[in-house]
Write a structure and sequence with these properties.
about 240 residues, mainly alpha, two-stranded antiparallel ribbon, 11 helices, 2 strands, flat
């Protein structure tokens, strides 16, 4: 049964969500400091130092890798390209909003496949959460890459091909670098691939998954190797071992 048929009311809901998203984005871009979480300034200071040749350090003395690496790289790139910390603050806000917008687009594509009639329920919860929760930290990038991983997983299981298998595993590997404890989510998604694949295609799906293991070895291995080389430890640290 259709819970919300395509109608003027449906179109009005879409317009309302678009306007609310535009409002959130405009306010965050104009006043990012009001919304950023405390931890975000740890990212920004380390990123600024890293981008300006002072190493991966918060205070210029003690090296640290106590952060999720992919978001730190994005923050460092913004700090490298923009002239002052205040301008970089707005640039990071723009990067954050871009991640959230892309995440919402990916979620919409997922819902179009599995729950098109109730998309508005998900968006009513997701839109304010995305733009008001832990801004400035890795959450937006993590959510974007997890959404990309789930969409790629759905496409891969629906029609297993080498290119779709590669995209799923690439998104999964990047999602962990966006937030390291996503490794537990990705681990369960790997199990889901084997369980959700049609019985007739299960062997080929598993074979494609095994062929994609080098994606993880390259990306995760590079991160671990950089930790070992620069910090003398494999795991993230921030002053003391977490």
């Amino acid at each position: 049964m259709t819970l919300l048929p395509r109608s003027p009311a449906n179109r009005l809901l879409k317009v309302g969500f678009l306007l609310s998203i535009a409002l959130y984005v405009s306010v965050i871009l104009a006043k990012p400091g009001v919304f950023f979480a405390d931890d975000s300034y740890f990212y920004f200071q380390v990123a600024w130092n890293f981008a300006h040749g002072m190493g991966s350090t918060f205070n210029g003395v003690m090296d640290t890798n106590g952060y999720h690496p992919l978001w730190m790289l994005i923050c460092a790139l913004v700090c490298k390209l923009l002239p002052t910390k205040i301008v970089a603050l707005h640039g990071i806000a723009a990067a954050l909003c871009l991640c959230d917008l892309l995440m919402l687009l990916l979620v919409q594509r997922i819902l179009a496949r599995v729950a098109d009639n109730v998309w508005w329920i998900a968006f009513a919860l997701l839109v304010p959460f995305s733009f008001l929760s832990q801004l400035g930290t890795e959450g937006a990038l993590s959510g974007c890459l997890l959404a990309a991983t789930v969409l790629a997983l759905y496409c891969f299981v629906s029609a297993p091909t080498p290119s779709r298998g590669f995209l799923f595993n690439l998104a999964a590997a990047l999602a962990v670098l966006a937030r390291l404890d996503n490794i537990f989510i990705i681990g369960f998604l790997w199990l889901a691939v084997c369980l959700a694949a049609p019985v007739a295609q299960r062997a080929s799906v598993l074979r494609l998954q095994l062929f994609c293991i080098p994606v993880y070895l390259v990306l995760w291995g590079s991160y671990l190797a950089s930790n070992l080389y620069f910090f003398g430890i494999l795991q993230p640290i921030s002053g003391m071992v977490k």
